[in-house]
Amino acid sequence: MQSKMISAAKSVVILTVYLITYVILINCGLLLNVVPYLLISFPFLLIWMVICILKDDKPGYPELKPNDEWGYRDKSKHDLGFF
Fold first, then answer.
1. I need a surface site. Which of 9, 10, 36, 56 has the fewest CB within 10 A?
2. Helix pair angle (35-54, 8-28), 10° resolution
């Protein structure tokens, strides 16, 4: 049985809310006994977020064809004027 990872976007949102909560608690002086635990757990959550982003299997990222260069998905290379 394969475990399903959270999508990259959700993991970024979760960690952003976590950091906003941390900053609010520090600046308002609330729950100061919980803040050190939030600080200690942050590196582990950051690693978890990076793993979620790297393992995200959401389709929609086109593969480059031979002799293609990386570019923007929403603009063709002729619109950019650099090629």
1. 36
2. 160
60 φ, ψ to 5°?
125, -5
- Dump pLDDT digits (tens) for 25-83: 999 998 999 999 999 999 999 999 999 888 887 766 667 777 766 666 666 667 766 65
**Closest C-alpha to 61, from 49, 70, 52:** 70
Taking the whole predicted model, whether its pTM rises above 0.85 is answered as no
31: left (phi over 0), alpha (psi -120 to 50) or beta: left
Calpha distance 39→59 (Å, rounded): 34
CB atoms within 10 A of CB 11: 20
